[in-house]
Amino acid sequence: MSFFTHLVLADSGLGGQPDPNGLPGSSALQQLISGLAFWALLASLGGLLISAAVWALSSHSGNYHHASLGRRGTLISAVAAFLVGAAPAIVTFFENLGKTVH
Q1: pTM score of the predicted model
Q2: Rounded to whole angstroms, how far apart are CA atoms 55 and 65?
Q3: 3-state DSSP call for residue 95?
Q4: Are 49 and 73 in contact (CB under 8 A)?
Q5: C-alpha–C-alpha distance, residues 99 and 93, integer Å
Q6: Which parts of the chain sit beneath pLDDT 50?
Q7: CA distance 16 to 18
Q8: Which residues of 16-50 are buried (b: 16+ CB within 10 A; e: fewer)?
């Protein structure tokens, strides 16, 4: 599609709104996404517990290389859990930002 065609479509008032009932299977897809988010949070929790234990035990025993790896794993797991929890808000933010484009 050319740039001119995009301009014509934008000026014609064509557009769309997200509709959860617009396609068949939307509820199944929503359940799938919710299940994936649950598994991602479980993985983040497991990573956080294991990494924190590695960090603590390695620091206590003087193994600074593994303590560094445990600290990195702890931070990555915490950020992953944050992103899973914040994902709907991030998507909504960018959707609203996209709606401001005229």
Answers
A1: 0.75
A2: 10
A3: helix
A4: no
A5: 10
A6: 4, 7
A7: 7
A8: eeeeeeeeeeeeeeeeeeeeeeeebeeebeebbee
